[in-house]
Write a structure and sequence with these properties.
It contains 22 helices and no strands. By secondary structure, it is mainly α. The chain starts with a helix and ends in an 8-residue tail after the last helix.
C-alpha cells in the first residue's frame, strides 16, 4: 500500500506526519462550534477513527516482538525478569519473532501488569495485529475522558489530539503500548477532578504498572490531597503490589533494567545532549537532569492546579529532562495539553518526526544516532515557544494572583 511506501523513507515520514498535524490544526480552526455536543462528539470520534485507520497498514515497531516473546514466556511459566532474551536457557523457544527483538542482551523494562497484558493478548492470538488493535482502542478510549473533562468549549482542541501525528502514528501505526498508560493516567486524573479520589489512586497504580514513568504523578496526588484522600495511597500500593506477586522472586531485575536504560542510553534528549557536549561525560548530565526533574515535580505538585494541568507539566518536564526521548514520549502529556492549550507541546508534536532522522542516519552510516542538526531543528523551536509561553503564563499568574491556566 502506498502509505507503507511513504513511511519507508525519512522524507515520507516527515510528509505523513506533517499532513496529519496540518489536518488537526485545520479541524481545530474550522471546528463547527454551533453543532450540538452529540454531533461534535460524533465528528471528533469519526476523525480519530479515520486517521488511525489510514495508518493501520504501517509496519509495527520491533518492540512488538518483545511483547509477544515475553507474553509467551509467562504463559509457559517463565518470568520475563529472570534473564535477558538471548539467554541460552531459552534457545529451544526461539522463533522468527525472537529474531526480531531489539536489545536481546538487555533486561526488560516493562512492569508486571504490562507483562500480564502481553500474556493475555498473546493468548488470544499470536498474531501481532492483536497488540495494534488493543493499543489503538486504548488510545481512542482517551477521547471520552477528555471530552468530559474539557466540556463543549474544548471540543475543537481535542481535534488536535484526534489527528495528532504522535499518538496516531505511535499507537495505531507502530503499536507501542504506551497508550495503556496514557489511558490509565487520564482516567486517574478524570477521577480525581470528579472527586473520586480513591479511584484516582487505584487508576494511578494501574498506570504505573503499565509504564513506570506515571509514578511521578503520585506526588501531585499526595500534595494536592487532604487527609481523607491521602488514605487512598493504600489503594495505590495495592494496585502496585498485586500484579507483582507472580514475579516477586525475579522482580529486582526490573529495577536493574530500568537503571540500565535510564543511565546507559541517551538519544534525542536536548538538555542532556547539551550537557554532554559541555562536560564530555554521560554521568554528569544524567545526574543533573534527574535533579532538575525531581525539583520540577516537587514545585509542580505544590503549585500547579488543577490536576490535569499538573499532569501536563510533569510529563512535559520528563520529556525535557530525559536523556532518551523517543517519538512516542510526547503522547504521554498531549491529552492534558489539549485540555490546557500548551503551544510547546503542539510545536513538539509537529516537529517530533525529526526523531526518525536517526533511522535515516543508520541507513547512511550503519549507526542509530541522532545527527546534530536534528537536535537543533527539533528542539530550538520547542524551547523558544516554551520560553514565550512561560513568560506569558508568569505574567498572567502574577496578575491573577494564582497559577491557574492562562486564559481560563
Amino acid at each position: 500500500m502506498w502509505v507503507e511506501a511513504l513511511w519507508s523513507s525519512f522524507g515520507g515520514k516527515v510528509l505523513l506526519s506533517s499532513a496529519l498535524f496540518v489536518a488537526g490544526a485545520l479541524a481545530c480552526w474550522r471546528w463547527p462550534h454551533g453543532w450540538s455536543l452529540r454531533r461534535q462528539w460524533v465528528l471528533l470520534l469519526a476523525l480519530a477513527i479515520v486517521a488511525r485507520s489510514f495508518v493501520w497498514p504501517l509496519p509495527m515497531s520491533d518492540d512488538v516482538n518483545r511483547y509477544l516473546w515475553e507474553g509467551r514466556l509467562v504463559r509457559l511459566g517463565h518470568s520475563p525478569y529472570a534473564t535477558t532474551a538471548d539467554a541460552p536457557q531459552y534457545s529451544a523457544l526461539r522463533d522468527a519473532g525472537w529474531e526480531g527483538i531489539n536489545h536481546k542482551d538487555k533486561l526488560t523494562v516493562y512492569p508486571p501488569l504490562a507483562e500480564l497484558t502481553f500474556t493475555a493478548l498473546g493468548a488470544i492470538t499470536d498474531r501481532p495485529w492483536i497488540f495494534k488493535l488493543a493499543f489503538t482502542l486504548a488510545d481512542l478510549a482517551v477521547l471520552p475522558f477528555l471530552a468530559v473533562l474539557g466540556g463543549l468549549g474544548r471540543m475543537r482542541w481535542l481535534a488536535l489530539y484526534a489527528l495528532n501525528p504522535v499518538p496516531v502514528l505511535s499507537f495505531a501505526g507502530e503499536a507501542h503500548f504506551d497508550s495503556l498508560m496514557v489511558l490509565a493516567s487520564v482516567a486517574a486524573v478524570w477521577s480525581w477532578e470528579r472527586g473520586h479520589r480513591w479511584w484516582a489512586w487505584a487508576l494511578l497504580g494501574v498506570a504505573v504498572q503499565m509504564k513506570v514513568v506515571a509514578v511521578f504523578l503520585a506526588w501531585p496526588f499526595w500534595a494536592q490531597g487532604d487527609a481523607r484522600s491521602r488514605r487512598g495511597v493504600a489503594v495505590f500500593a495495592a494496585a502496585l503490589i498485586l500484579p507483582t506477586l507472580p514475579f516477586v522472586l525475579t522482580l529486582p531485575n526490573l529495577l536493574r533494567g530500568l537503571a540500565s536504560f535510564g543511565g546507559d542510553t541517551s538519544g534525542n534528549g536536548f538538555l542532556h545532549y547539551l550537557l554532554e557536549l559541555l562536560t564530555r561525560s554521560k554521568a554528569i548530565p544524567s545526574l543533573a537532569m534527574a535533579l532538575l526533574f525531581f525539583a520540577a515535580v516537587f514545585v509542580i505538585g505544590k503549585k500547579i492546579r488543577p490536576m490535569s494541568r499538573a499532569a501536563m507539566h510533569v510529563f512535559g518536564a520528563f520529556v525535557l529532562c530525559a536523556p532518551t526521548v523517543t517519538f512516542w514520549y510526547p503522547a504521554w502529556g498531549l491529552p492534558f495539553a489539549t485540555l490546557h492549550p500548551c503551544p510547546p507541546f503542539w510545536v513538539l508534536s509537529a516537529l517530533d518526526v525529526l526523531y526518525f532522522a536517526a533511522v535515516w542516519e543508520r541507513e547512511i552510516t550503519g549507526t542509530f544516532e541522532h545527527p546534530w542538526w536534528a537536535y537543533w531543528a527539533l528542539w530550538t523551536p520547542v524551547f523558544l515557544t516554551l520560553a514565550v509561553w512561560l513568560r506569558r503564563s508568569t505574567k498572567v499568574s502574577l496578575t491573577s494572583g494564582s497559577l491557574s491556566r492562562p486564559g481560563r
